[in-house]
Amino acid sequence: xxxxxxxxxxxxxxxxxxxxxxxxxxxxxxxxxxxxxxxxxxxxxxxxxxxxxxxxxxxxxxxxxxxxxxxxxxxxxxxxxxxxxxxxxxxxxxxxxxxxxxxxxxxxxxxxxxxxxxxxxxxxxxxxxxxxxxxxxxxxxxxxxxxxxxxxxxxxxxxxxxxxxxxxxx
Length: 170
Known about the structure:
By secondary structure, the protein is mainly alpha-helical.
């Protein structure tokens, strides 16, 4: 019985492989990480540029990061990833949001953090991603979690997030 189960399993794998060959090629780990990083940080950057400056200090409750603080926090992750991705011995150094006085400064920080991290990603040999996805997978997940938080900030202020304006119902 075990032999039949193994044959069925192998036939299933062969069928799946044949089906996949006829489909769009899956991205390599390097391509997947690069695409996901660009996707999520692009959405966050779009929100940073779109959110009204007079609401950048909005926080849903005392002790919770403001909208601007969340963007700085996400940028801190990008800075960490860029350094770690270059092989630097680095720990997460939270950038101080107080050093970024307005929307323009925060957007500029986010743009620079994305540019620096993207340059590090592009300089990383593709084979490296076959060994480890660190630190990129964690930083992508981190940014995606905070993206969701920023969506709530939009909604709490009676605003429609940019992604929801792109053809879907609000």
